[in-house]
Amino acid sequence: MADGAAPVLEVRGLKTVFRTRGGEIHAVNDVSFTLHPGELLGVVGESGSGKSVTMMSLLRLLPAPPADIRSGTAKLNGRDLLAMTDAELRATRGARVGFVFQDPMTSLNPVFTLGNQIMEPLIKHKGMTKRQAETRAVELLELVGIPDARRRLYQYPHQFSGGMRQRVMIAIALACDPDVLIADEPTTALDVTIQAQILELVKELRQKLGMAIIWITHDLGVIAGIADRVIVMYGGQVVEQAPVKELFANPQHPYTRALLQTIPRISGERSERLKVIEGQPPILTGPLTACPFRARCEYRHDACDATNPPRRAIDGQAVGEGHDVACHWYALAKVEMANA
Asked: Looking at the predicted structure, is the pLDDT value of residue 271 above 60?
């Protein structure tokens, strides 16, 4: 991450609602974050916390209706993605922002060769001829570690393993040299060995290309090994944000602490049971008027039922730049320490 560099992506006050027959589901609630050039930002939280919906909202990839982006800005190099026309956004997707989806088998078209699918954005966004796009497609397959790239360019998705298909998805996302790469749990469906290879590939590509990456996952172990900074999401909002080492060493939100306690540890003790977070995530049928984690929190206080806590800076930096947390317990504990 370049020190003092302007953010490549700056999201402020993002709110997304789904209109259903049973009422409105408030899936994303006032989410704000920044992403700097060359930075890898980890986004963590359990299923239903709003990770994927937040990132898909940025590129307006959600069907509307039922999705409705109520408010917010998402400035990519100063231009608001949410204010772009459909034509401008189509020109931006793939060209300036690459997206790697969770399941490569459903993301790749089974009736087209992989070469056609890699070449399409090159011809559309870069104006390349078919021959130029073919040459670049071979380079991209080689870049992501696929052997015999020229021959495999003319094969179909079913002729590739899961790990190889995910490499192809990364190649497509990188085709137009985007400023930002968003990876939505790209290793979830892969076995541990292939997962390790994909993570190593991402590290190498980031070093070579210097692009900014958003990595969405529920796996804190993955984040520990690749991220610079982490945002923790719960109830469709950011509950804690910090540099990765700071988050693991000094977690402040009870949800973050609970997540870290669920990570299996090799300690030699077999009698200790793996910790779980009791209860279920909230069903967000209305705006958040109280802390969304309160029903599952061992530090629950009267204030948690009264208002939804704002994000507060812990280290004196601006919210979003250093370590911040949205928690009444943290604020009350600080007051008690000051009065002691």
From this structure: no
